[in-house]
Design a protein that fits this description.
GO terms for molecular function: DNA binding. InterPro entries: Homeodomain-like_sf, Transposase_Tc1-like. It holds the Pfam family HTH_Tnp_Tc3_2. The chain is an all-alpha fold and 158 residues long. The chain has helices at 15-26, 31-38, 42-57, 72-84, 90-97, 103-112, 128-147. The radius of gyration is 33 Å and the shape is flat.
Length: 158
């Protein structure tokens, strides 16, 4: 009958359909596209996805993960010390903070603050043999380039 919805839209979602919806939405599909493939209403798909994100994804169990060795204040001190003196080493930071932490922890705190180690690039590490080969290559190329150039005097003299 036209004008009436199929009763399938009003039935409860099975576990399989919920899995399909969550999988497709996680992959970035639109609600309309998922609803068409699962043959459910957009509202049902949206409600299923919202319930999933609210109940499953954003719940963090208390006490999970390793215990913190540094406080937030010590974390800020690590970052501040690096900003004040860019040449400071991890060992110096560790001694200044006064907490027994591994260098990886210091590296992680600096990475969270978008600070990365940079070494200045002073010169190319060329050996004398490589310098000689490079000079020969440049001379060969320059000779080939100047052979293709045609010099024309475009000025007119009366």
């Amino acid at each position: 009958m036209p004008g009436k919805r199929d009763k399938r839209h009003f039935l409860q979602l099975s576990y399989f359909e919920r899995g399909l919806i969550i999988g497709m939405k996680t992959a970035g599909w639109s609600t309309r596209r998922v609803a068409g493939l699962v043959d459910r209403s957009e509202c049902a798909v949206r409600n299923c996805w919202e319930k999933w994100t609210r109940d499953v994804i954003h719940v963090r169990k208390t006490g999970s993960g390793a215990t913190r060795k540094t406080t937030r204040r010590e974390d800020r001190r690590i970052v501040r010390q690096t900003l004040v003196d860019p040449t400071v080493t991890r060992l110096m930071i560790r001694e200044d903070v006064g907490v027994a932490i591994v260098p990886q922890t210091i590296f992680r705190h600096l990475a969270e603050a978008n600070l990365k180690s940079k070494l200045p690039f002073l010169e190319l590490p060329l050996t004398p043999e490589l310098r000689q080969l490079r000079l020969q290559l440049c001379q060969a190329r320059s000779a080939a380039v100047w052979q293709m150039v045609v010099f024309i005097d475009e000025s007119r003299f009366v």
